[in-house]
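sorry for the late reply, my laptop died twice this morning and i had to redo everyting from scratch. anyway the thing you sent over, i finally got around to it. pasting the sequence first so we're on the same page, its 286 residues, then the predicted structure underneath. double check i copied it right bc i was rushing
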Amino acid sequence: MKKILLVIGLIALTAGAGHAITCDSFRCPANPYEGSFSFSNLTGINFLAEKIGNAIIKKAINKESQGKYKVNLQSYNTGALKKGIFKTLEINGTNTVTDGIYISKVKFKTICDYNYIEIDNKQKTATFQEPFGMAYAFQITADDLNKTMLSSSYQEMIRKINNIGNTSKIFNVSSTSAKIENNKLYYTFRAAVPLLKMKQDITIQTDISARNGKVVLKDTKLVTNSFKLDMNKLEKLINYLNPLEFSLGIFDDDYAKTKVQEITIKDNVINLSGIVVIDEGTVTEI
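ok and here's the structure:
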């Protein structure tokens, strides 16, 4: 799955080059078009080119992701746009599904006012001629989380957990679910305990936060009083199965560096924001 396409909306990225850049060290490149004015802007030709670009980007996104998308591309002039140089790009999506990951609202917007992605149609490659960055914001509901946890990729993650549990005869996770009440996340999983020959629904209440650029569950409390577990071990298991961190799998490309900057729950909806950056010189196939 070419997931980074959702972020850029332009090209299918499948191979990378060097990756020295990090989210913290990202800096916008110098803008050679700052303060410039183009004749194509005056005649309206550039406006038409932007509309065509928006349609192309939207079509590319729809190949990789379901949902309703709006795209707003702004360029400096038609000549620059043909080279792959543009001013800003904003993508808004609602009720999106990307590789089995459900997100009610997504928003991406370029960080810099100068972006340069050179397209070589003969070689079928795209080269990031400057560092590229986008800010993102997601709104995720409990329904989104439950649908995502039914995906084949998430179920495969559970299978790997069960392989460890079965080997030690400690537990086996058969199902998971989530709900959000009073701005608290409740996570439930059904666990079979072979040694006790029993199955138990285990529900935890947890807060969420951004730590070292990732989503982590914290202050985990066991709601299921009839079942006693080591909370330190349970929190490690829950963080491994963390459906929010799993949802960030839409960025799963080696050359894209991502950072979660803020995460909150308001009106029983999870709001998550951060940045994604790609290093200058990264070459990809299209």
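DSSP finds eight helices and 14 strands in the chain.
thats about all i looked at so far, will dig more tmrw
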